[in-house]
């Protein structure tokens, strides 16, 4: 006699996935905020010594970057949400038109994890009886029924992080004494992009050292290029 199979808990997993998506948006927003603002600051500061002009240019770019990143994240996650809804609708249709195929997909999921075919079939029967749609979309796509990515969370995270990231170079360039504004800005940018590289690697299970070095190199190149552009103006 088969023991009762408890449905796998997906709430925590899905919550973690949504949090990871929000954190990803935040890290990318912070990185873009740092690099776009320092790029504008270096271009303008290389072309003029007027501190007010430098500040206004940096602040304008900070706000533009923050809202641009937020709108981009909202559009991207909204598209993901629409795709998830389409998948759920298709699986709902398949449960009506091809229940045997859906059962086989669930059974195959457990067979791939080391369960015997007979037991996997029994598990599939029980889970499909309790929550057919929820089971199918979980095993086939890792989704949770009636729970989708929220584009507003990603947009807000991107907005706040991009603005926060841009504050570091803006503050260093406009608050530090004129004689120190260049080295102060460089010193503000390098640790900031190192941190975003570290966080992005952690979130993506990548190589931390490589991500940090890559971000620092990109940051230095960004500053050099924009300084050169400012010199030509």
From TrEMBL:
Highest taxon, organism lineage: Bacteria
Regions crossing the membrane: 21-46, 52-71, 152-173, 179-199, 211-229
Keyword Transmembrane in record: yes
InterPro entries referenced in this protein's UniProt entry, alphabetically: Ccc1_fam (IPR008217)
Membrane topology: Multi-pass membrane protein
Keywords from the named record: Membrane, Transmembrane, Transmembrane helix
Pfam families according to UniProt: VIT1
Location of the protein in the cell: Endomembrane system
Protein name: VIT family protein
Organism taxonomic ancestry: Bacteria, Bacillati, Bacillota, Bacilli, Lactobacillales
